Amino acid sequence: MDADFERGAEYAARRDETDPLAHLADRFYDPEDEWYVDGNSLGLLSEDAEEALDRAVSEWRDLAIRGWTDADPPWFHYGERLGDRLAPLVGATPEEVVVANSTTVNIHTLIGTFYDRAEGSNIVVDELDFPTDHYAVRAQLRQRGADPDEALTVVESRDGRTIETEDVVAAMDDDTAIVFLPSVLYRSGQLLDVERITAAAHDRDILAGFDLAHSVGAVPHDLSAVGVDFAVWCSYKYLNAGPGAIAGLYVNERHFGETPALAGWWGHEKETQFEMNPTYTPAADAGAYQIGTVPVLSAAPLAGSLDVFADAGDATDDTDALLETGIEAVREKSLRLTEYLIFLVDERLPDCEVGTPRDAERRGGHVAVEHPEAYRVSEALKERGVVVDFRPPNVVRICPSPLYTGYEDVWQVVEQLRQVVENEEYERFEERGGGVT
Ligand SMILES: *Cc1c(COP(=O)(O)O)cnc(C)c1O
Hints:
Layout: H1 9-17, E1 35-36, H2 47-63, H3 67-70, H4 78-90, E2 97-99, H5 103-117, E3 122-126, H6 131-143, H7 148-151, E4 152-155, H8 165-171, E5 176-182, H9 194-203, E6 207-211, H10 223-226, E7 230-233, E8 248-251, H11 296-312, H12 319-348, E9 353-354, E10 367-370, H13 374-383, E11 386-387, E12 389-391, E13 395-398, H14 407-422
Parallel strand pairs: 1-11, 3-4, 3-5, 5-6, 6-7
Antiparallel strand pairs: 2-8, 7-8, 9-10, 10-13, 12-13
Helix pairs in contact: 1-14, 2-11, 4-11, 4-12, 5-6, 11-12, 12-14
The structure holds pyridoxal-5'-phosphate.
Pyridoxal-5'-phosphate binds at residues 102-104, 130, 132-133, 182, 186, 211, 213-214, 234.
């Protein structure tokens, strides 16, 4: 814990003044009179992302079909070029990363592909996973004639919040094909030990895949060096690329040349794609996992968004280095903000509990604040202009997104939460029905 945190609002203002990333917030459309701390669900629009989208629309207007070859970058290679730029954020080579499809579709194609080539027959997941991951893995098992209830090994949580690495390791056996886990748990915000899990899997010839949806853009990764086999992520959370934006994926180069489970012409070897052969030759790199035509309009904002990350980096002429140091600076600020948030919850909210690991090494970019009335508390917060989300049964997720959230925002959010809880303001709200929260 940063020893010099103080409880008062003046302290937050002082921290904002000396925050080297504070100026980046000006580039985001931060709703007036609101505290937006839901960037782990949907990141805010930046001017950069908006301009990149506008540019794509202009190219469509001005170039029409010629955009595939004459746009900048040409749309034909849009997925690969954006993949090149994303690679430093996940610690991969440019060839190992591409943007394509949605996260769920990428789980389908990667799990399908690697299940086919792996030795074993079961897949290890954990019980705190984001549901779509299980839906997709189960569907792939069913399609391969396996019974998901038998073939899915679900690591249990000891405390309902976190997953122990040793429990993951203990769940792997001689019949395990793949271990597929999130880097950061969507509810508690625990950061899993990607390196240890991958090493333990490889010791037993098991493939290791990760869903980085809750870490990409907040936590740096080192996928190639660690030797992770494959990974997926979405771009609308910390990467701020917009609702339903194109997703990303990584495949380690030692697996290049496999035929993807879900093949499509956009993953064909680029040089010969337009020869229109009825048989499929996969691209020689991660590009093979694209399926249909790249959705340029849902990819363009990511190009602008990455400029903001580059500007968080130390000035240099090398874009890769800029993005690498950018994500390090983002992580540094993110850890300080979440630590400060935890400090304030401990100091000022005796009726709430922190469900997120306190150890920085085990923490992603958001904090789970637990309260028995979490649903109604989150409704009362929204009425006060604090945009959070609720995750059942008892979690209010608060995400200080480091590119646009400051210390004073964190202080204000905790102050609003204190008033809601202390005055039992949530009593005025209805119990939970269904719907999006
Ligand atoms: C947000 C999220 C997804 C979303 O998948 P989509 O296909 O974009 O709907 C998947 N997995 C995890 C862990 C997530 O956090």
